[in-house]
Design goal:
single chain; alpha/beta; Rossmann fold; 6-stranded mixed sheet; 6-stranded parallel sheet; 23 strands
Length: 622
């Protein structure tokens, strides 16, 4: 998606006639269905007129111009891209980040500066790091750049700033990124013109622009496919904007916290697909490389076992479960990264815990005391079981009781659901989890959402994606029994809808399974998982290109009362079914379907068993 694409001559004409901001406003409303903020409109008007002057100065009139181009599978947009040909008629493009800053102040966080933004001083990425990340992202994921057809460079243009070598932006500590991704100030416009000319001065940019806009892009690198490389400190996943800022800040605070006398907690909040696990694993890699005893913990067996499998036998000891820290000594770990913290339970006791090792003390307190710097990644809306008590308030309350300070961060950018924040917000609104502005789903070119007319059609769509080389899975609400494997390790087709039936994924304690049937914790990543239906406990924490969801009758929309109602008789999830009050039962089911519906990066298909629920969802689609 882009808000503007045309020739450089047309772009210059639109800026001279003061209509470029109007065109962007119209395109913005047409795509997002709400008006851009006045501040964003002012920034378009001011910055684009400045870059238009540079194009005229450089006589770059036979080129392509793309404005507000959304990076594939994220919610981030590039300010300006110009396309053309360079030396040897090689197709090329330059990404230009446009900033209206007039000053920047230092910070101790790597690759960040402080500037006045949004009415207050904020810690943000250095412009060179930000635009450099965009370049690396395109080179990693966009076919036109990753296959070498089009060369790519990037820079920043701070047109309100005059060059001053004493300014924090040009401090020697930023020299490496400045050399790779330069900054040009207002008085350096001729230098920017020369930089653009070196890459695309040969013109013929319309054809290159068409290639950029029409080329396919690969799905973002799957977290679990690259964990081993991440732990080996290879650059296989690019963090963008607030992900990079949070990573750098957490890394800085973790290092500082280790050397401070007192203990400090770091809390990072973020919804589905905002990069929580990616940041967590990058932290493990970076801190381990620095010599810190950094460990990773989660409450998900599927997620932990996949990580252990990928990092290998030697590294698996650094990947544990929350309950493992019930017996840990004080400050036994330098930095403990707790992912999926919403899956924390009241205590670390399980049916396997020996009586002498049991404790009535809250598990959250054990975890906080076990690490010099505990780091929690959390989504308060992903609690799907009554005994999962993890929440922002739980962590803050325990910190208060223990006299420990808390630093909070929040992630917003989407890497799942095609980078569409609108889809996640629409799911929240439709399920009645949280009111948002996204009442209607109006479609998104980067994300496919379809309601299947039958479960057979749902499976056909998912299998077609799987056979085309995409990662695709079917999942369902827990509305059918879950049997043990029969003799020979074969699974019983418990999920029955009319004449159609399929088995659940294998149980976690299933010992021997028939060939081709993956263990439960590998259902999400093993190709054999396409033949089973997954539940929320095996799907949570993972991502697929396409997900097909069977929406059961345990949660239904009642058109007479205009509300969501739960039906315990249709649920086979014993812990959820045992919820003390109906409101808790319904809330857990809403969170369950929210998790399932937001597992896809490129698309989500859904089949409803209940007609009223299907009609309600249809009424929320434009």
């Amino acid at each position: 998606m882009q808000l503007y694409a045309g020739t450089s001559r047309q772009f210059v004409e639109d800026t001279i006639r003061h209509r470029i901001d109007q065109k962007l406003q119209q395109a913005f409303f047409g795509y997002f269905r709400f008006e851009p903020s006045p501040g964003e409109v002012r920034s378009w008007r001011n910055s684009l007129s400045q870059v238009s002057s540079v194009l005229q100065y450089a006589d770059l009139m036979d080129h392509g111009v793309i404005l507000e181009y959304q990076l594939p599978l994220t919610s981030k947009r590039l300010d300006f891209m110009i396309t053309g040909t360079g030396a040897g008629r090689k197709p090329g493009a330059v990404v230009v980040a446009l900033k209206q800053w007039d000053d920047a102040q230092p910070t101790d966080v790597e690759d960040c500066v402080v500037t006045f933004l949004g009415g207050r001083l904020r810690e943000v990425l250095h412009p060179s790091r930000q635009v450099g990340n965009y370049q690396m992202f395109l080179e990693d994921y966009h076919a036109a750049f990753s296959d070498g057809r089009i060369g790519l460079k990037s820079c920043s243009y701070l047109h309100n700033l005059q060059f001053d070598p004493a300014n924090e932006l040009f401090d020697p500590r930023h020299r490496a990124i400045l050399d790779s991704y330069p900054i040009f100030t207002g008085d350096q416009s001729p230098d920017l013109a020369e930089f653009l000319h070196s890459m695309v001065g040969g013109g013929d940019g319309a054809e290159v622009m068409a290639t950029v806009l029409n080329s396919d892009f690969k799905a973002s690198k799957k977290l679990l496919d690259h964990v081993k490389e991440v732990i080996d400190r290879q650059d296989v996943y690019v963090l963008l904007d607030d992900q990079q800022v949070v990573f750098n800040e957490v890394l800085t605070r973790a290092r500082e916290g280790f050397h401070e006398k007192g203990k400090s907690i770091i809390l990072i909040k973020g919804g589905p697909g905002t990069g929580k696990s990616v940041i967590a694993l990058n932290l493990i890699a970076e801190l381990s490389g620095d010599g810190y005893n950094a460990q990773y913990a989660t409450g998900s067996k599927a997620f932990t076992e996949n990580l252990r499998k990928l990092v290998g036998q030697r590294a698996r000891t650094q990947f544990k479960y929350f309950a493992d820290y019930q017996r840990a000594g004080r400050d036994e770990v330098d930095v403990l990264v707790c992912d999926e913290s919403h899956r924390l339970r009241e205590t670390g006791n399980t049916r396997f815990t020996r009586s002498e090792h049991r404790s009535d003390r809250p598990l959250i307190e054990h975890i906080i005391e076990s690490a010099k710097v505990p780091v929690f990644f959390i989504d308060d809306l992903q609690v799907v079981r009554p005994n999962e008590v993890g929440s922002t308030e739980l962590i803050k309350g325990a910190a208060w009781d223990l006299g420990v300070g808390v630093r909070e961060f929040e992630l917003a950018a989407q890497f799942r659901c095609g980078g569409s924040e609108g889809f996640v917000n629409w799911v929240n609104n439709t399920l009645g989890i949280r009111e948002t502005a996204n009442v209607l789903w109006e479609g998104d070119d980067a994300f496919e959402f379809r309601i299947a007319e039958s479960v057979e059609q749902l499976e056909t769509m998912i299998r077609e994606k799987h056979e085309a080389g995409h990662k695709a899975r079917m999942a369902a609400g827990f509305c059918w029994p879950w049997s043990d494997p029969v003799k020979g390790g074969y699974l019983i087709p418990d999920v029955v809808i009319g004449d159609w039936s399929r088995p659940w994924n294998a149980k976690a304690d299933a010992a021997r399974l028939a060939p081709g049937i993956p263990k439960s914790h590998y259902w999400s990543t093993d190709p054999g998982g396409i033949d089973q239906v997954g539940c929320v406990y095996t799907a949570q924490g993972f991502e697929f290109d396409y997900v097909g969801v069977i929406f059961g009758e345990d949660l239904r929309y009642d058109p007479r009362s205009g509300s969501w109602v739960g039906d315990r008789s249709k649920s086979f999830d014993r812990p959820v079914k045992a919820a003390r009050v109906d409101d808790e039962f319904v809330a857990l089911l809403k969170n369950t379907y929210r998790v399932l519906l937001t597992r896809g990066m490129r698309g989500c298909y859904i089949y409803f068993l209940d007609e009223d629920t299907r009609n309600f969802f249809r009424s929320r689609i434009k």
